[in-house]
Amino acid sequence: MAVNFGASHGFFQSFSSPRQIQQIPSCNLGNLLRFPPSRRIPISAVARASAAEAEAAVTAGKEESLAALEVSEIDGKCKKWAWRGYAINYFVYPEISSEAAADVKPPLLLVHGFGASIAHWRRNIPTLAQSHTVYTIDLLGFGASDKPAGFQYTMETWAQLILDFLDEVVQRPTVLLGNSVGSLACVIAAAESSQSLVRALVLFNCAGGMNNKAIVDDWRIKLFLPLLWLIDFLLKQRGIASYLFDRARQRENLRNVLLSVYGNKENVDDELVEIIRRPALDEGALDAFVSIITGPPGPNPVQLMPKISLPVLLLWGDQDPFTPIDGPVGKYFSSLPAQLPSVSLFMLEGVGHCPHDDRPDLVHEKLLPWLASLPVP
């Protein structure tokens, strides 16, 4: 997930939930930005595979969904990779891949969204690792990776980090899977590379930019643009930013944000709240928060996607309040299957902004057969 004032990505997005503006019950900046509910496009209107194709795909995917990894196991087996003088946290599962799988199946790299980390994929890693070597990474500024003071975060920086990780650590053509702003980082990486490092893309509710300054075609953003500029100004005042960030990372505030972006409320548990909260307590987390919200939005996926000829799977939660399917970004991605034969889209009913953690069962049902269908290079 990621911070995008009004339409793109994630956690800590109490500062940008596109819901109706309400009377402010307390000093919670998130309540300042409640945009009107978006009109939902009927699921039948969105491009998707035919029933026959779906049935064949399910048959092709032999793996079963497995239980989630324990966060303590992930933490205990993470490794560090030195990138441009910074320590980047990553996780490999299983630690030793079978030679047969390594010869045939491409590795996977899972890239989280704003405020999340490796553990946000705990419900997916064991299932995906039945047939692939799975890598997950904490982007610079998140999780247990370094959070350098005063660093100016950009989408291009994260995309380059991904490409360098593939080149130096994975060293094989890899399928990139990203959620929200992590999706956009994967798109940029695939578009900017020679594509020899990237085998395919899986995008979960892709963001339109690092923040809402990228979403200029949405009337909801235009209406509140002066307010967004004011918030940018306020967040550049250290004392104000610190106060607001302290409130944003309180457990109950985080829980409320997560409940607003998950369709499956049962998965918003104490463990998930701590996965988001714990890295936000690190030194440098405030700088990352402010830089991402107030920085440049980065490249637009509308310009990037036509450059990508790789297989692309779009899995989109239809109850996403941050990147709604009827918003500019959602409409663009929903139009792609009709334009690009390499793109497939499945809408996931009753699912929010983080499909992989919200309803991993639905995600695996579509993802596993798609991965199995990738042609062997």
Could you describe the 3D structure shown?
With 377 residues, the protein is of the alpha/beta class. Helix content is 40%, strand content 12%. It is built from 15 helices and 8 strands. An 8-stranded mixed β-sheet has the order 1-2-4-3-5-6-7-8, sandwiched between helices. Strand 5, helix 6 and strand 6 form a beta-alpha-beta unit. Helix 1 packs across helix 15, helix 5 crosses helix 6 and helix 9 crosses helix 10. The N terminus is likely disordered.
Described by the principal axes of the CA atoms, the overall outline is globular
Average pLDDT taken over every residue: 82
What does the oligomeric state look like here? single chain
- Rg over alpha carbons: 19 Å
Question: Main beta sheet: strand number and arrangement?
Answer: 8 strands, mixed
Number of strands: 8
The topology string of helices and strands comes to HHEEHEHEHEHEHHHHHHEHEHH
The total of helices stands at 15
Main-sheet strand order equals 1-2-4-3-5-6-7-8
Broad structural category: alpha/beta
What brief labels describe this structure?
377 residues, 15 helices, disordered N terminus
Briefly say what this structure is.
The protein is α/β, with parallel strands linked by helices.
